[in-house]
Design brief:
The complex is a heterodimer. Chain A is elongated. Chain A has helices spanning 2-11, 13-46, 48-51, 64-102. In chain A, helix 2 runs antiparallel to helix 4. Chain A is 84% helix and 0% strand. By secondary structure, chain A is mostly helical. Chain B is mainly α. Chain B has one domain (3-60, 75-432): Sodium/glucose cotransporter, CATH 1.20.1730. Chain B has helices at 3-18, 37-60, 64-69, 76-87, 90-103, 105-115, 117-132, 138-141, 147-181, 185-232, 238-248, 265-279, 283-288, 295-326, 350-399, 406-430, 437-460, 466-486, 488-492, 508-524, 529-536, 538-547. The longest helix of chain B has 50 residues, at 350-399. The radius of gyration of chain B is 23 Å and the shape is globular. Classes of the chains: A mainly alpha, B mainly alpha. Chains A and B meet through helix 1, helix 2, helix 3 and helix 4 of A and helix 6, helix 7, helix 11, helix 12 and helix 14 of B.
């Protein structure tokens, strides 16, 4: 029974549109996260002194801490960005496709 | 104690965390301390509250779906807290605080390495997991493949992870409770075992989830309170905190930048891979995605979990930095009152001493009770995942070929959790004197190499066939276990040989590619009629994964 529905969904051009849009968005965000993380690890491995630079001239606290906290915050905000689009735009198209297929 | 010894101790501690910082409270051979009455009273309150919840949950647990996945009736926010709870163990609190205390920024680097898996789970996995899964992750891997073979191997992978992880948690619990509560080791292990079985058999996933939620809130609240009280002593000024930490630490300015922990890039990358993809292959974390009604809520739960985990890591790092000044300059926390000597209770204690320093016995008791509750919640999740693999995968689908009644399946699951509880207590007592750090490395290694590759391929790669899934799982399982056994952690530390046969302790960077390669090889060379059918069936699975149409929905309560 459901195979027929799946086929109708599959043949709906909106399905391809949804998949393409969502995949592009998810993979772009993944690439950004992994890219930033990779750069960070490379700096840690090859130029650790850079991260020990003081935040204020003559101060002690280094830029490493706010950079670390900033990464954690940024990655979290990016998951927020994803669900903002996924839970509204993508899910709306999704609901429409399913509705079209079961009628 | 001279500086050379101290340095050695710090490095040994750091190494022992490499595989287990977030995973198990390895406190080594702890000294039994005096009875801590505040901690025991607060833990007693926690136990009473969670038993009340279990009673309430038991009345609501009627169907198999209620039992395994709380009927899909958990909201995204609740589930997010529970996932964070599964992830943040007593070792996150103790191990990472202590790592920052001794190593400064290196501790925070570890936090970031553990954290980066979460956005990945969000973007690549959450939605498909929810759309395809029902009770266990084997539901996904066996979706279009041979039910009996693929489920059997998935269940073996799950049970291996669960048993290794359970032993590590049990031993950690015994040591930690001996240290914090002043109770005997065996008594602590038995208490943990009995409560775990009670939560899981009577309350199923509903009780397990709520125990996890309460624990996550207590851990976040307790940690934040200690951090704020400690930070207030520096006028909430990070510059003051850093200046004093640098002045009061032997490491001095080295605290402020990356140190030597990541000096070996292969170990660092392997650890990072193992933690990131191991998390995405842990059966008790994967099960959490089936407790929410739809993909929308699944995404929301990862969003909430990511926030909690990231926030908690930052709190823990600040606690470690503050402890350098507050604990490190107070002789009462050192053995024989000798500043810079051995911390009372061992190297994992800065978080607890800090709680005592800023909030007295009451806060120390509270934090100790939270640490105990944390272990309890994690083992309950593990036991439920293990019992589900036995009942849903092996019993209902392999032995009974899908013809078992729901009532029988749940009955088998409850018996399995009792069996796992007894096994965990016995092994926990048997392993008392062992160094169990390697068990956590094994659990994450197997999760990342046996469970994860086949899971992700089954969702993303059309060409995966039953033979490929079996080859990939076995290759991942065997290579991960072999690497850990031949590495220093087991070959030298446990078996007492002089030199390790394999130079690296973290298996993921080697065993994951092996698993992916074998899964690919087994699939592309599989020209059977069954393989052709399986590849064809990917279309329907793909549509369901993308749209959620046909996915197991929420039961009406």
């Amino acid at each position: 029974m459901s195979t027929a529905v799946y086929e109708r969904i599959r043949n709906n051009p909106k399905f391809d549109e949804l998949v393409a849009k969502r995949s592009r968005f998810a993979w772009t965000l993944t690439a950004v996260v992994l890219g930033i993380y990779f750069i960070f690890i490379m700096v840690v491995a090859f130029n650790p002194k850079l991260l020990a630079t003081p935040i204020w001239e003559g101060g002690t606290a280094s830029i490493a801490w706010p950079i670390g906290a900033g990464m954690i915050l940024l990655f979290w905000l990016m998951t927020g960005l994803y669900i903002r689009r996924a839970n509204s735009e993508f899910d709306d198209i999704n609901a429409e496709i399913i509705k079209g297929a079961i009628e | 104690m001279n500086r050379g010894m101290l340095k050695f101790a710090a490095v040994a501690l750091a190494l022992s965390w490499m595989g287990l910082a977030i995973a198990a409270p390895d406190v080594g051979q702890a000294q039994k301390q005096g009875i801590n009455i505040h901690a025991i009273v607060m833990f007693f309150i926690f136990v009473m509250a969670t038993l009340g919840i279990t009673y309430w949950a038991a009345k609501r647990t009627k169907t198999a779906s209620d039992y395994y996945s709380a009927g899909g009736g958990i909201t995204g926010t609740q589930n997010g807290l529970a996932i964070a709870g599964d992830y943040m163990s007593a070792a996150t609190l103790l191990g990472l605080t202590s790592l920052t205390y001794f190593q400064g920024f290196d501790g925070y680097i570890y936090c970031i390495c553990f954290y980066v898996g979460w956005p990945f789970i969000m973007f690549i996995m959450a939605e498909r997991l929810r759309n395809l899964g029902k009770f266990t992750f084997a539901d996904i891997t066996s979706y279009r493949l041979d039910q009996r073979q693929v489920r059997t191997i998935a269940a073996i992978g799950s049970l291996t992870v669960v048993v290794f992880y359970l032993i590590a948690q049990m031993v950690g619990a015994g040591q930690l409770i001996k240290l914090l509560f002043g109770l005997d080791y065996w008594l602590a292990v038995v208490i943990v075992g009995v409560l775990m079985v009670v939560y899981v058999t009577f309350g199923g996933m509903i009780a397990t989830t709520w125990v996890q939620i309460i624990k996550a809130c207590l851990l976040l609240g307790g940690g934040t309170a200690v951090m704020l009280l400690a930070f207030s002593q520096f006028g909430f000024n990070f510059e003051t905190l850093a200046t004093q930490a640098v002045a009061n630490s032997k490491k001095g300015l080295a605290l402020m930048g990356p140190g030597s922990l990541l000096a070996d890039p292969i170990t660092a990358v392997s650890l990072s891979l193992g933690l990131m993809f191991g998390t995405a292959g842990l059966p008790h974390i994967l099960m959490r995605f089936f407790t929410v009604p739809n993909a929308k809520e699944a995404r929301k739960s990862v969003f909430v979990a990511t926030l909690c985990v990231g926030f908690f890591f930052t709190v823990v790092a600040l606690m470690g930095l503050a402890a350098i000044t507050i604990v490190g300059t107070n002789p009462q926390y050192f053995e024989g009152g000798e500043l810079g000597g051995k911390l009372i209770g061992g190297g994992n204690m800065p978080a607890m001493h800090l709680a005592h320093a800023v909030g007295g016995n009451l806060l120390l008791g509270f934090l100790s009770a939270v640490a105990f509750a944390t272990i309890l919640a994690v083992v309950a999740g593990l036991a439920l995942a293990g019992a589900s693999a036995i009942s849903h995968d092996i019993y209902a689908n392999v032995i009974m070929k899908g013809k078992a009644t729901e009532a029988d399946e749940v009955r088998v699951s409850k018996r399995s959790s009792l069996f796992l509880g007894v096994l965990a207590v016995l092994l926990g007592i048997a392993f008392e004197k062992q160094n169990v750090a390697f068990l956590v490395g094994l659990a994450f290694g197997v999760a990342a190499s046996c469970n994860f590759p086949v899971l992700i391929l089954s969702m993303y790669w059309k060409g995966l066939t039953t033979r490929g899934a079996i080859w990939g799982s076995i290759a991942g399982l065997v290579s991960a276990v072999l690497i850990v056994v031949l590495s220093k952690a087991v070959w030298v530390v446990v078996l007492g040989n002089k030199e390790p046969i394999f130079p690296y302790e973290q298996p993921a960077i080697f065993s994951m590619p092996i698993a992916f390669f074998m899964a690919w090889l087994g699939s592309v060379t599989d020209k059977s009629a069954r393989a052709a059918k399986e590849i064809e069936a990917f279309e329907d699975q793909y549509v369901r994964a993308q749209t959620g149409f046909g996915a197991a929905g929420a039961a009406a309560h």
